[in-house]
Amino acid sequence: MNWKTIKEARRKLASEERTIFKDLGGKISVALIYPNSYFLGMSNLGFHAVYGLLNQHDQIVCERVFWEGHEPVSLESQRPLGDFDVLAFSFSYELDYFNAVRLLKSSGIPVFAADREEYHPLVIAGGASVTANPEPLSAVIDCFAIGEAEAIIPQVAHILAEGMESSRDELLQELARVPGIYVPAIRTDLVTRQAANNIGDFSTTSVVLTRETELGDLYLMEIARGCSRGCRFCLAGYNFRPMRYRPVESLLEQARLGLQYRKRLGLVSAAISDHPQIEELVTGLREMGADFSVSSIRMKPLSDVLLQGLAESGTKTVTLAPEAGSERLRRVICKGVSEDDIRSAADKVARHGFKQMKLYFMIGLPSETEEDIVSIVDLALATKGIIDKYRSGIQLTLNVTPFVPKAGTPFQWLPMATSHILKRRLDLLKKGLNRKGIEVKADSLEWSMVQGMLSRGDSRLGEVMDSMPKVTLSAWRKALHKAGLDPDSIHREIPVNEQLPWSMIDSGTEIGRLRTELERANQNGC
């Protein structure tokens, strides 16, 4: 084992607050794995929640593991992964699948479930991406948690604590009976996504505090879960239903606890400004002297109380997400905001004196034309004109991401635009804006294609990832070719009556509803 790795783990521990240490003493050991860096993983509130939930069980010791590009060890005890009874992966992004495969290989654990012996750890996975479509990892993972941790973990933890002495097959048979657990080796007709009924019964906040992370100056608090907006491209809007809010009284109590550790609070939700008590929450936070931040805010409704609270809290940047430049295309994706709404939101943000505004747009959306790209340019220039009326020097930045079809959404059947088309449209954006003092930032077009294939892929992709000597685009294409898979399949529209790889997952939204939304999109209706 690498001494530098152990030394680095101990250094990180020394900078943390509220780390959970438990004596192993005959208990079940679980390595909770975020297959990316500590810097990113420790800002993931879902990861915090699972860590806290597992450690609440008396017979389970849960320790954290991250992927830093070398043989991993657990943070709390610096043990190798092979020493654990269970490996539990938390996946937020499809591209992290590559890191999971590398992590298993570097730990000497067989990548494929069928190759693992009784003495190897049981491998479990959950998170947003595998809840939508677990199949790309179905040959790798022993069982998947489909849905929200709070609704699944208590029963799973009980089975692990009581049944780890059983054979692997017996344990998997028992886990397969748990609602929301998908065991690929034990195929069932349908696995129903699980959701917590009343999120007011528990808190979802930062468990461990550290400055060595993306949001290290914040104490994170989830104020609501789900989204009722119904944007047709959005995984969160369809896989985290129904919309649920925490009452302001409990949120203020959580804030008082958080202020013992951080002056700033990070409010987490898919739709912060949709909380029906957002103004009472903001007022309460400011009265107790708390500064707060949010990830992004809706353009409609956009509360002046919320904006004022953010400004007083020292927030420098406000992020809005029009997603598309033209009125027609926003109807196609069912965004639910008009150009007047966007202009009004920009005006409100500028009046409150923020130093930077970010606008999120997608390119390659269904039915998009170059006229829609010109509309993004026009809208960005109009926004720049609005904010410059109040004060010169306010930075306007466009963050541009390619549309990626997501399983379980109305757009799951639709193709991705080719990289040639995406590049041409991105160049058109940059040409129209860079000389106007508007910065354009874009995700990798080529890696977005890989993400698309993983989003809609099947079990053959496990072999593809395993056969890659390193994670590069070239290695990906060669591995696809070797497996007889076409990288251009992501540009194919899937017939709505075709069997989908993720058809064993009941997301909670009927397939007929998804088809109806797709038909309405094709008619430019919302």
Overview features:
single chain; 526 residues; alpha/beta; Rossmann fold; Transcription Regulator spoIIAA; 19 helices; 37% helix; globular
Description of the structure:
Helix 14 (370-390) packs parallel to helix 15. Among the domains are: 3-192, Rossmann fold (3-Layer(aba) Sandwich), CATH 3.40.50; 217-315, Transcription Regulator spoIIAA, CATH 3.30.750. It has helices at 3-14, 38-41, 45-56, 96-106, 128-132, 149-163, 168-175, 235-239, 248-258, 278-287, 304-312, 327-332, 339-351, 370-390, 419-433, 445-455, 460-466, 473-482, 511-522; strands at 28-34, 60-66, 86-90, 122-126, 143-145, 181-182, 191-192, 218-222, 224-225, 244-245, 264-268, 291-294, 317-323, 356-363, 395-402, 438-442, 505-506. By secondary structure, the chain is α/β, with parallel strands linked by helices. The strands form 5 sheets. Strands 2-1-3-4-5-6 form a 6-stranded mixed sheet. The longest helix has 21 residues, at 370-390. The radius of gyration is 23 Å and the shape is globular.
Q: What is the β-strand count?
A: 17
Question: What Rg do the Cα atoms give?
Answer: 23 Å
Biggest pleated sheet:
6 strands, mixed
- The portion of residues forming beta strands comes to 15-25%
What is the fold named in CATH at topology level of the domain at 3-192? Rossmann fold
* Strand order in the largest sheet: 2-1-3-4-5-6
* Straight-line N-to-C gap: 57 Å
What integer is the average pLDDT?
Answer: 94
How many separate helices? Answer: 19
Helix content: 25-40%
Overall CATH class of the domain at 3-192:
Alpha Beta
Low-confidence stretches: none
Task: Supply the helix-strand structural class.
Answer: alpha/beta
Report the CATH architecture of the domain at 3-192. 3-Layer(aba) Sandwich
Describe the global form. globular
